[in-house]
Design a protein that fits this description.
Elements lengths: L5 E4 L9 E5 L6 H12 L3 E7 L8 E3 L2 E3 L2 E6 L11 E6 L5 H17 L4 E9 L14 E3 L9 E5 L2 H9 L7 E3 L2 H13 L2 E9 L6 H11 L11 H30 L9
Parallel strand pairs: 2-7, 2-8, 8-12
Antiparallel strand pairs: 1-3, 3-6, 4-5, 6-7, 9-11, 10-12
Length: 272
């Protein structure tokens, strides 16, 4: 595994041949909203964590219980893909970059190969056209696409031909050109070398704040892989907005913590 990065999993977790879902922070916090929705609606259980001394020294506290910054969940929901009878979800709220991204990439993909996890999806987003261009060092996707102002746009990228065919069956247009940074970018590039059937769906999102509308549209796309939504989409949007509010609260507390750090005041490290 990558130097300094360890994947710690409960011995009772059954992961062999699972479908991998990665939700690292993205534009509009779409991945975080989607990850929380899947956690709640697929009845996944907390199974482990990814640890590295470069990960922020924090715990995410919810309902009085602490959770590590990069968490792993597993379960056996209804899966519509071949050779898929269980799911593994990796979820986090902090952006991974630099050397840590490459170390974490190597650990995740080598661990996946050891557990015969040969297929998976990386949830991501890109900024709407007309938004301020992202800082090149931020790792945010830079995507060239045909904007439809009346719809939420999607683009897809896959490491294998099989993944490209799956994206087409989901009616997700393939990304013709652009750059994908962050964890999705490094994971997909290495997955192609390792011939792992990994792919990514990126949704158009507003970069200024958590975008529940974009997240709910992406969740609807995922219903062709996993049974995650009902026919009536109104509750889905309401659910995404509820999760959006939770993430906004968390980000506000995070900003307060950072301000306390800069002022020299005690740092409580509490997240809402």
């Amino acid at each position: 595994m990558g130097e300094g990065t360890q994947i710690k999993i409960s011995e009772s977790a059954d992961l062999e041949n699972a479908f991998l879902i990665c939700c690292f922070p993205s534009v509009g916090m779409v991945s975080s909203i989607v990850g929380q929705y899947l956690l709640e609606h697929l009845n996944l259980n907390f199974s482990g964590a990814i640890s590295d001394n470069r990960i922020p020294a924090i715990s995410l506290v919810k309902d009085g219980r602490p959770m590590p910054p990069v968490r792993i969940y597993s379960g056996a929901p209804i899966c519509k893909l071949e050779n898929c009878d269980k799911v593994v979800l990796i979820s986090s709220e902090f952006k991974v970059g630099g050397e840590l991204a490459f170390s974490m990439r190597d650990s995740i993909l080598e661990w996946a190969k050891e557990n015969k996890i040969s297929q998976g999806i990386f949830i991501d987003a890109f900024a709407k056209k007309g938004s301020p261009p992202p800082d090149p060092s931020s790792g945010e996707p830079i995507v060239e696409y045909d904007d439809n102002p009346d719809e939420i746009d999607f683009v897809g990228v896959a490491a294998t031909v099989k993944g490209l065919e799956l994206l087409k069956s989901m009616e997700v247009p393939l990304l013709e050109q652009g750059l994908i940074g962050g964890m999705s970018g490094v994971l997909l590039g290495e997955a192609r070398r390792m011939e792992l059937n990994m792919f990514s769906i990126l949704v158009e999102a507003d970069p200024r704040f958590p975008d529940a509308r974009a997240a709910s549209a992406l969740i609807e796309k995922l219903d062709s892989l996993l049974s995650v939504v009902d026919l009536d989409t109104t509750p889905l949007i309401e659910e995404a907005e509820r999760i959006e509010d939770q993430i906004k609260s968390m980000l506000e507390h995070q900003l307060q913590v950072q301000e306390s750090d800069n002022s020299g005041a005690p740092n409580s490290m509490l997240y809402g």
